[in-house]
Amino acid sequence: MSIELISRIIGLIVFGSVGTFFGHNLGIMLQRSLSIEPLPIIVYRIGSAVIFAILGFIITPWITVKPIKSLRKNLSNLSAQTLIFGIIGLVVGLVLTLLLAYPMSLLGPPFGNILPVISAVVLGYLGLITFVARQKELRTFFRIGSRSRASDGGSIDSTSTVDSCRILVDTSTIIDGRIYDIARTGFLPGQLLVPRFVLNELQYVSDSADNLRRQRGRRGMEVLSELQKDPNIPITITDIDVEGVREVDDRLVVLARQLNCPILTNDYNLNRIAELQGVSVLNINELANAVKAILLPGESVEMAIIQDGKEYGQGVGYMEDGTMVVVEDGHDFIGKTIRVTVTKVLQTAAGRMIFAKPD
To answer: What CATH architecture does domain 293-358 belong to?
Structure first.
């Protein structure tokens, strides 16, 4: 039996009892207002009990179970840090109310009775939203204070700082494979966390009926195995999960907010969703674009022209890092390696694009 059905039964009994209690007065009121023939009291009690019981059966979940479920879902989406700062802000607001309560009580009725209650609500709410809204600045302030105390008493343990940094790993990053090379170079400090539901999604892709998806999933399994075998790469498969969320991307975002850690991914949609919710994202594609060699207008480079461009007379070549170079009037040099001069460099969402012309 579900909790919602139990609440409906309890509401039916409670509201029915209330209807029975008020049935007599309700019947007298109806007789006076409608001028109808008086009926036995038991009729009014039964009628009122039935109406109230039906009403209680319908509305009880909306005033008991559903608000609790909604509150529980909202609280599960909040990080522990947000909850702590919210409680601290509420306590600060109530302490200020306590200091102001006695002076306000001396004003006499009705202000002396009303203002302390109003100030408790207003200051408590202001303290809560202020500390939640400014939690990043406050966290930075407390961190700086703790570091200064540590520097006065001795050196800071750098290994504990690295261990406290955690990075959630997305399925797309594991399948991509470049995470192993990046982690091996040491550019990902701290602990790599692979949630169990990400591993389950990777296994689901590996068991797919589609041959391409199956190969990608198995490649991801091999990359994850290589990461675990490398003793210099701290990686952990964790059972941490979130309740009430089914989609893997949504669970990653909620978990990142709760743990206050970034997500490592190259999924564009997950990147956008996480950024909209204030979660930091480490995008491998953006890293790859950032470390590509930069050519400035006027520089010359050897380029092999391998195909036609979109516009008439253009030729297209590629640099070693995969950057596309569009060569004006390069059609006649297809299949040849020539020296070209860069004329323009464009940075797009898909990457860097270079325009050049033959020397």
So the answer is: Beta Barrel (2.40)
